[in-house]
Amino acid sequence: MRVTSKTFIRKTKRGNILKIVREHYLRDDIGCGSKVCTKCKLNTEQPLEKIVTVNNTNFTDKHYLLVDTNVVLHQIDALEDDTLKNVIILQTVLEEVKHLSHSVYKRLIDIIGNYSRCFYVFVNVYHRDTYVERFRGESPNDYNDRMIRVAALWYNKHFKGTIKVLLLSSDKVSKAKAIDEGIPTMSLEQYVSGLNNVTLTDKLSNRTCMVEETSKEPIFPPHLTPAQIHQGIKSGKIMQGTFFASNDNFLEGNVFVEGQEKNILLQGRENLNRAINGDIVAVKLFTEDQWSAPTNLVIADYDDLDLENDRSINETPKERYPTGQVVGIIRKKWRQYCGIIQHSLVENTNRHLFVPAEKKIPKIRIETRQYDKLKDQRVIIAIDTWPRTSRYPLGHFVRSLGKIGEREAENEVILLEHDVPHSKFSDQVLACLPKETWTITASDFVGRKDFRNLDICSVDPPGCTDIDDALHCMLLNNGNFQVGVHIADVTHFVKPGTAIDLEASQRATTVYLTGRRIDMVPGLLSSNLCSLRGGEERLAFSCVWEMTPDANIVNSSFTKSVIKSKAAMTYEQAQLIIDDQDQNTPIATGLRQLNKFAKILKKRRMDAGALVLASPEIRFLVDSETRDPLDVEVKQIKETNSMVEEFMLLANIEVAKKIYSDFPEFAVLRRHPKPPPSNFESLVKAAAHLGVKLNVDTSKDLANSLDKAIKLDNPFFNTMLRILATRCMLQAIYFASGTKTYDEFLHYGLAAPIYTHFTSPIRRYADVLVHRLLAVSIAAETTTPELLDKRKIETLCQNLNVRTRMSAYAERASVALNTHIFFRGKIRDEEGYILYVRKNALQILIPKYGLEGTLFLSPRKGQVQAATFTYNEEEQTQRCGKIVFRTFDPVVVQLSLDSSNVQHERIVLKLVKPEILNFSIPSTNVSTCATTAQQSQKNTEASESSLQPQPKRAKI
Amino acid sequence: MDLLSRQGLRTDGRRSDELRRIRCKMGVFNQPDGSAYLEQGNTKVVAAVYGPHEIRTNRSKASNENAVINCQYSMATFSRSERKRRPRDNKSAELTLHLKQAMTTAIKTDLYPKSQIDIFVQVLQSDGGNYSVCVNAATLALIDAGIAMEEFVISCTSSLANGETPLVDSSNLEETMGGPSLTVAILPISGKIAMLETSQRMHINHVEPVLSEAVRGCRYIYDKLNKIIKKHYEEIGSASNWGTEE
């Protein structure tokens, strides 16, 4: 080994200039990684192949590929294609990619990890013959390019012509130099064109085609350079924030700037200036006289846009918001998007428009020669660039998911769009599982209490196979009761640091789509070995309390245990047993006592200010064969639901206290921050119009005023208020206790000062962590380093938060998808209520389907409408003649599915009642009755055999 | 920043179990009774030993049984990329004590009653593992001074990369970026531990692998220094033909 040193100059935070000297060892034991070579030691498990068979008309010699940084950065989609094999990745390239784009780096690592692809990482920077020192004054880019060329040259000399190493580079200067030095070089485009592979050609990034368009007039103002932005932020003229596109109006968006009270509003194409949802952008505020207000318009595309309307934005609004313009994009959050290719009007063209499934993303222009094949497919597209001259960003095709409308493809879209990891469990993960015939042995009783003789039972929704909790209650001799909550002992099977643990921590939660469940842990554990099924011996983690008859805890203990559940019941069954006074089995009396306790606990919680919120939750009855939804029903809440919930809350709170007292720095807790008063503004306003006063100072005030807000003429009013109040809330999040002060631990919704998740380890990873902590604190297990690392716990928590949020969105999207399938070919009249009054539309909630839809009041483009509505912004009303629409008003609307846009099938609402001349339509009740009758008849047959979606408890 | 790449190389090109280059020279100064210069990678240290001599300072400490060991650890003001104000501070006072402890275990102090042995070490250039290199340099200087010792005292540092892999002989970058680091000084023949210290809390599961890696590093340094010393004395002795003459 030789040693040399690397010297560079660095500026410290304080502004001191430092000279840093580091050693740099040059090794002679780094192999070239090819099976052909006999000189080098093979130090890789995935060497470059000996026999290379690639038919490339542009390069006929036997060859390996060597890519430069730009090719990786821009053409990662093409590199992901299986056709490209035997590629050498230099350490220089790897490091540069890592530095420039973390997402591309991750994908590159995945490709390298795929052994069949034969990607070899050559550590050129530590190789004796390929390391070169940087010249004085040489730019880092030039230096890296030179390193790449030196390595390429070394490779070609090393193989002595038996195999050529082809350098793929798109940089003109570097390419010319390489050719001068005698290195075979070409661009990836040129190389791919020699392969005659249409799919691969489509995957090429669209960077070159913009050249033709530069002659056009620029549509967008230019972006500032990074240096200018940096300067601007420093001087306070420019602000940095996250861009969120508006849900309804594609020409509007908000920028959230940290530390700013109000978001900055962006309006119009020039001001959005090519920002895409999620980007970190640099914004410049306008002077105050140019400030504006959200338009309240629902605009989906340029087609919807009346140009005059566009101008009318400038009419003086009552309340102005800080308004600004994007002047640069600091970090692009571009990812791959699912969607479809828009039907093109011109025939035989390669240029097409792609419509993303997510409304917040603009359409993307792509080039493909496979339009005929892809036109009715769900496809994935990546954005390449967005030049100033182009109205839409330019992108390229990545892969196809399947036919539009097919359940599998649509589910795939939902999962991909929400970034839900859903691939099959890998062999390494499955290898961690115990055998299917696993049973409890004598050794399992060590350190566990034997609770098999207790009368334990579980109460869950029907069809639930992952039972993670069970309860028992027993009268003690001193008149007190022993109450036990028994939770599946998942951590017995999922040991820290194993493949199964890593996978579960990545997935973070089980995702329940209608008719499909994406497990966090493999099915053997989730629905068999961990599930506390009736009549089977299972390992559990138990919380046992002694309670006085008025539900005060005398003492509590936590222990690992072995239990044997006497019965696995549904809520309904449990309710029947409780109500049936003739039953006096230990289970029945236990349940009755638990129910009594639950009522006391609930009352206590309510008095402390816990909120009862509502969200329209529905479930589908699904046909077992076709998996099509047959009917919907709103989830029924029984007394027993609340009984189980109370005890789960109690267990969670008790566990939270315990682990926090033992691990003040890294206990995994869950907090629900108090929403800022501004979140409630519109709700309070809307309620005030109906003469209902809402007090939102504390959760208790809110709970009280919600309880009082009852309108006799509108029985659904209270539920509506609760639904809207739910939307004002912030999200509850997991965190490591050491990162916050005790005051911030508050769970606002539950009015609990400290809270965590302990009771569902089968379907939530947070619970797994909490189980481990609790096990350590009762000395049932020893700690592992990861568990005691605050930073690691915090990063884990952040991942859990993201995944949990995404899974909730995915579940919602799945319900929406099924609603659409359900409405195919159906027209129904339903009761609905007005949620929001908008400038050109009413937002309507149909409780029966848990559905929210838009009823447009102003005519769509190209249509004429006789009835005109007047919008009153102050009172939030829409008026037409005598009829006034206010928030919370009941209406009857006709629902039908508009399939004219294949991508965004949408439910169309038409007003039935109140009747408005030339606007409302006659009722179709006759036909609805017929279909409902037919439907319900079908239901009775289906409901027995139906594969019900996995229902689960409300999130607490 | 990854301290250990997927290819198993550290930021300076070493593998996790490789030490830095060791170079040393004994008898670099003439005035002291013994001296040595040692460099491990970019950490460069000189050590000088005076004694055994009559106790000059602090006569009250004099003992009829043992020699008094007096140590001083200091860092040159130019030893880091930012100039230090003073060569000695609180940190170096602490290291002085550790150094004294480690050296006292090996020196046969009972052979030198009523006398004093002074060990001065100075870090000329600092790049991680300063204390370890100082211990090793002090051992060399003591040998050069001809002071009787049980055996060598050899020290080595090891830290933890990515929370799992032990890195032996960590550089400054690895010490500052990585997890907790562990310094051990051992008597390599008997395997006794003369000093053990961790920079921060270290999980019990990590102590074993990190410690064994550090000890392995010590043994490697021992072999290396042993060879150098033998060669050194062969060269010195060759003038009077000892070492070459059988």
Automatic annotation (TrEMBL), chain A:
It is found in: Cytoplasm; Nucleus. The keyword Disulfide bond does not apply. The keyword Hydrolase applies. Residues 63-176 form the PIN domain. One of its GO terms (cellular component) is nuclear exosome (RNase complex). Residues 933-956 are annotated as: Disordered. Its cofactor is Mg(2+). It comes from the Eukaryota. GO terms for biological process: nuclear mRNA surveillance of mRNA 3'-end processing; rRNA catabolic process; rRNA processing. SUPFAM superfamilies: Nucleic acid-binding proteins (SSF50249), PIN domain-like (SSF88723). Residues 448-780 form the RNB domain. Residues 933-949 have a biased composition (Polar residues). Keywords: Cytoplasm, Exonuclease, Exosome, Hydrolase, Nuclease, Nucleus, RNA-binding, rRNA processing. InterPro entries: Dis3_CSD2, NA-bd_OB-fold, PIN-like_dom_sf, PIN_dom, RNase_II/R, RNase_II/R_CS, RNR_Ribonuclease, Rrp44_CSD1. GO terms for molecular function: 3'-5'-RNA exonuclease activity; endonuclease activity; enzyme binding; RNA binding. Belongs to the RNR ribonuclease family. This is Protein DIS3 homolog. It comes from Cinara cedri. The lineage of its organism: Eukaryota, Metazoa, Ecdysozoa, Arthropoda, Hexapoda.
From TrEMBL, chain B:
Pfam families: RNase_PH (PF01138), RNase_PH_C (PF03725). Residues 18-147, 152-213 form the Exoribonuclease phosphorolytic domain. One of its GO terms (molecular function) is RNA binding. GO terms for biological process: nuclear mRNA surveillance; poly(A)-dependent snoRNA 3'-end processing; rRNA catabolic process; U4 snRNA 3'-end processing. Keywords: Cytoplasm, Exosome. GO terms for cellular component: cytoplasmic exosome (RNase complex); nuclear exosome (RNase complex); nucleolus. InterPro entries: ExoRNase_PH_dom1, ExoRNase_PH_dom2, ExoRNase_PH_dom2_sf, PNPase/RNase_PH_dom_sf, Ribosomal_Su5_D2-typ_SF, RNase_PH. SUPFAM superfamilies: Ribonuclease PH domain 2-like (SSF55666), Ribosomal protein S5 domain 2-like (SSF54211). It is found in: Cytoplasm; Nucleus, Nucleolus. PANTHER family: EXOSOME COMPLEX COMPONENT, EXOSOME COMPLEX COMPONENT RRP41. Non-catalytic component of the RNA exosome complex which has 3'->5' exoribonuclease activity and participates in a multitude of cellular RNA processing and degradation events. Belongs to the RNase PH family. Component of the RNA exosome complex. This is Putative exosome complex component RRP41. It comes from Cinara cedri. The lineage of its organism: Eukaryota, Metazoa, Ecdysozoa, Arthropoda, Hexapoda.
